[in-house]
Design brief:
The complex is a heterodimer of chains A (about 290) and B (about 160). Chain A has about 290 residues and is mainly alpha-helical. Chain A has one domain. Chain A is globular, with a radius of gyration of 25 Å. Helix content of chain B is about 95%, strand content about 0%. Chain B has one domain. In chain B, about 10% of the residues are buried. Chain B contains two helices and no strands. Chain B is mostly helical. The chains are: A mainly alpha (about 290), B mainly alpha (about 160). At the A-B interface, β2, α2, α3, α4 and α6 of A face α1 of B.
Amino acid sequence: MATEHAEQALTPSSYITHHLSFNAKPIGDGSFWVLNYDSFIMSVLLGVLVMGLIWWVARSATSSVPTKGQAFVELIFGFVDEQVKNIFHGNRHSFIAPTALTVFLWVLAMNAMDFLPVDVMHHFVYAPLGLEHWRSVPTSDINTTFALALAVWFLMIYFSIKVKGLGGWIHELFCAPFGAPNFAIPKNLGGVIGLLLSPLLFVANFAFNLIEYISKPLSHSLRLFGNMYAGEVIFLLIGLWAATGVTGTIFGAILGAGWSIFHILIVALQAFIFMMLTVVYLAMAHESH
Amino acid sequence: MNINFTLIAQAIAFAVLIWFTVKFVWPPLLNAIEVRQKEIADGLAAASEGKNSLAVAAKQSEVTLNEAKHKASEIISQAEKRGSQIVEDAKGAAKAEGDRIIAGAKAEIDQEVNRAKEGLRAQVSALAIAGAEKILRKEIDAKAHSEMLSKLAAEL
């Protein structure tokens, strides 16, 4: 299966490196000003495709007997809406539920690109288009998952400030979850020591919140990235085995099929988890302590 | 695995997608589903209402049926009463008529008997006279009688 690269001395490491290289082009000076065209174009294409399909159904949605397409879309809608309803108890229809739908469908579509056989796509689609490096799965790019998680993170802070006010949010940063210190006049020596030590409570609260605010986007993005990246690597390893000969090809095909089937679960589950975490984080931002 | 500008590009794409969904995808779907939910709820309410009114109508019809049955049996008993009364009346009238006819016949018979008696009486007297004449004719003595008659004539 990997024979198309035979002209460049094919080693396992060059095969894997080739498939894990982004189509990265610099758009300015410095290592930051680089755009991974494959991740960006694939994700935008998938986003337009998936949300466009839903929009196409939604704009002719009827409240009487639905068509099969509308029934399918309503199934997804109901599923997402139900999850959001169980977690978030505000007006979910204005923002959080549609966001959850976007996240779920978009991530699901991007994850599902993992099912495209890497070498077949390279040989028949990307190479003829002149794309030497092209990765099909945007969610196996840390930039994509981190972009999503960071966007959710900013939304989190935005809703925190919107619901509690800037003062309320800062108060919560220093006075939750361990509570605010009590500044009553001390009555004994223990009370005096307590009063002197009480500012430590602010420090503890703030440290705790800081860790929370840092860990949320990291765990949110790295979980999805790790799962999809690992899935892709395993496909590549199976492809490597397939390149060793007839026996390897047969077992590689069987293993590849098995991993694909198992990967359906991972793809759907990770999309679901990413959506649920998005909703949970945004719902937590609405809660006052 | 470097963090680069892709991060910002993807975040912008994400923001645009969320905006699109919030603006154009979610509202029509929500509206369609909510309107249908309301229609279904209304339909179910109408169905239960219909069920209730059906039960009421069934009860009403039972009451009406019972009433009608009662009325019918009343009418039948009345008709029976009236029929027997008519029969009774007819019987009485027939008896009276019969009695009248019988009485008339009796009176006529009596009359007839009387007339026959009268006739017989008249005939008996004629027979008696004829018999007396015959007896007289046999026992008459013209001389004595003419003497008596002439004496009578003399006394005049």
